[in-house]
Amino acid sequence: MNMKRIFGAILTVLGIAALIYVAVLFVNTSGGTTDIKALIIFGVIGLIFFVAGIGLIRTTKDEA
Question: Rounded to an integer, what distance in angstroms lies between the CA atom of residue 51 and that of residue 63?
Fold first, then answer.
């Protein structure tokens, strides 16, 4: 297992954690402006991390 796959796995886990955090914020939101900003910021960052991590895992070839 090389460094790119490990980094991809870390990014994927961070992305999943951010998306779960967004889901929790969404359930507990009262509709304020700061709540909406936090939802958008963490949602976009989580989605970027998740997609980048999955992309690294899929495109990295195992060479022995």
Answer: 23
Which residue, chain included where needed, has tokens 């994927």?
12
Q: pTM for the full model?
A: 0.84
DSSP state of 60: P
CB atoms under 10 Å from CB of 7, counted, come to: 15
Enumerate the domain spans of the chain.
Answer: 3-59
> Residue-wise pLDDT tens for the chain (64 aa)?
688 889 999 999 999 999 999 999 888 887 777 778 889 999 999 999 999 999 998 988 877 5
Six-digit token string for 28: 């507990």
Cβ within 8 Å of residue 11, ≥6 positions away: 49, 50, 52, 53, 56
36 touches 15 (CB < 8 A): no
